[in-house]
Design a protein that fits this description.
Elements (H helix, E strand, L loop, with lengths): L7 E5 L15 E5 L17 E5 L16 E5 L17 E3 L19 E3 L19 E3 L19 E3 L19 E3 L19 E3 L19 E3 L19 E5 L8 E4 L5 E5 L4 E4 L4 E4 L9 E5 L5 E2 L7 E3 L2 H4 L2
Length: 328
């Protein structure tokens, strides 16, 4: 069997492609923990559609080329340079997570990319991605990014994960009008007003920032779930205006306030920890006091809250608690 006829090869702890070869119609090549492997030039001789490389610490893209490979994952490889990767002209999926990258320059002309994952690297400059307008899913969390302005032209994005960075300014994100899933946790964000232009947002994670006001979200009519804990938010009544909203997470809010949530049958999950919250139920709901962090659809979860006030005039409300709480 010639190497050019291979459709699947698994190479583990070996240098030469001829070792430990298995054939399959999936077009997948997997290489794991081959510390001697450096040159990927042999890929051009194989009919590989999907390439998965993990924990191979000496590889480079300098001599690689392929017109058939559409999906590449190179993770946990301590990769520092992408020189040569532009020769993979058919790529639409690229995962370079958990490496040592700080320069995305070689990606600037990879116009067919639809999914890019560069999480857990050392990236601070996103400008090389500015022309990759076919991108639909972008994962850039755990880097050194301070703003999103250089990727404002990525108007086809559906998913953006940008948590655990140093982002303080959301200017530019208002042009990403197709966003549905947005993760911005653990940044330095104070102003979320640009998000009001992202009218298709369904899931929003903005926990662990410096946000005080979420009223701009009143324009995000499609919003279904958000996580807003570890901020400085005192007013969450905007939730009452979101017709599709079904759940949120609220934890450790810094300033107590008798905020009101008009609950209804569409509200499936409320999870709050060590917060100050007043809940005015309108429909029959199940309120169960728990110390666990699990979330169950159709329940209102209240965990270790101080200063909780419930309107018990609603006779359809059922409260489940411990004997200690029941006696109070």
């Amino acid at each position: 069997m010639k190497q050019t006829e291979l459709e699947l090869a698994e190479i583990q702890n070996n240098y030469y492609v001829k070792h430990q070869v298995r054939i399959s119609p999936d077009g997948v090549l997997k290489i794991k923990r081959d510390y001697a492997l450096k040159d990927l030039a042999f890929i051009s001789r194989l009919n590989v559609q999907i390439l998965f490389i993990s924990r191979c610490h000496n590889i480079s893209f300098e001599n690689i080329s392929s017109k058939s490979c559409e999906d590449i994952t190179v993770k946990y490889c301590k990769l520092k340079s992408l020189t040569g990767i532009s020769q993979l002209s058919a790529l639409n999926y690229l995962n370079l997570s958990f490496d040592k990258l700080n320069d995305l320059g070689p990606l600037q002309n990879m116009y067919f990319l639809e999914t890019l994952n560069v999480e857990f690297n050392e990236i601070s400059d996103l400008s090389p991605l500015s022309k990759l307008t076919k991108l639909k899913d972008l994962y850039i969390q755990n880097n050194k990014i301070t703003n999103l302005y250089n990727i404002r032209n990525l108007s086809r994005l559906l998913t953006l994960y940008a948590g655990d960075n140093k982002i303080s300014d959301l200017n530019g994100i208002q042009h990403m009008k197709n966003l549905k899933y947005l993760q911005l946790h653990n940044n330095q964000i104070t102003d979320i007003s640009p998000l009001q232009e992202c009218r298709l947002l369904e899931y929003l994670l903005i926990n662990d920032n410096q946000i005080t006001n979420i009223t701009p979200l009143q324009h995000n009519a499609q919003l279904m779930y958000m996580s807003i804990e570890l901020n400085f938010i005192t007013d969450i009544q905007v939730i009452n205006q979101l017709q599709n909203f079904s759940g949120f997470r609220l934890e450790n809010q810094q300033q107590p306030s008798p905020n009101q949530i008009q609950t209804s049958t569409r509200m499936k999950t409320i999870f709050t920890v060590r917060s100050h919250l007043e809940i005015i139920p309108q429909k029959r709901m199940l309120i169960r006091e728990r110390l666990s962090s699990s979330i169950h659809k159709g329940e209102l979860l209240i965990d270790a809250i101080t200063n909780v006030q419930l309107n018990l005039s609603d006779k359809l409300l059922q409260v489940f608690g411990t004997a200690e709480h029941a006696s109070q």
